[in-house]
Amino acid sequence: MWIAKSEQDAPGETAGPVDLQRKRRVLIVDDHPMIRQGLRRVMDNESDLIVCAEAESVRDARIAINQSLPDVVIVDLSLKQGDGMELVREVRAHHPQLPILVLSMHDELIYAERMLSAGASGYIMKQAASDQLLVAIRRVLGGGIYVSESVGANLIQKFATRGAGVAVNPVDRLSNREIQILHMIGKGLSTREIALSLNLSIKTVESHRQRIKRKLNLSTGAQLVQYAVNWYGNRPKDGIE
Length: 241
What we know:
Layout: E1 2-4, E2 24-29, H1 33-44, E3 49-55, H2 58-68, E4 72-75, H3 84-94, E5 100-104, H4 108-118, E6 122-125, H5 130-141, H6 149-161, H7 176-186, H8 191-198, H9 202-215, H10 221-234
Parallel strand pairs: 2-3, 2-4, 4-5, 5-6
Antiparallel strand pairs: 1-3
Helix pairs in contact: 4-6, 7-9, 7-10, 8-9
């Protein structure tokens, strides 16, 4: 399901003096109606932004992008139908000039760099204040990149130490999906719970677990669980709370 907003805001339609400084059109892609409603309320109070459409799946997002012609897309990383990571890659491939802001509850110190590499223009946590969200939206609309200070500092440090003999983190070998699953294992979720959360089959999750073990040089499922718990517990905590 995708929801177009008021017809008076349809692209190409004149609206008197407002056109002198056209409102920038925002597409919200999130499978939680309350999140979409909250984001819309934030936009409603701004003179330069308007929600042109909402979508709750990757398929709906494709339709909404083509029909509502947004100026920026705000997308959640986890969707019930489809994968936010894949949506970012797809939008970047087919709409290279369209800014994408990832708004997610997933740890930014784990996912932000990966999402920027996939084509996102920015990454912000759902816990961030509404004024910070507005800063992020306007930053990417202006052609910039948005990440929090802690993520920016982490990226700078990573760049500065690259090639300086620093040991490579084995987790960097994992794909985005494998990172998601390792993260969930570390939080204590079972294979069945992970499958339900990511809308995958149990068999698919088991295949991912096997690949993760191989890439991390682990022999047993118990070793994988222990590794995931330690990794999750020891990750940096200085991101946005």
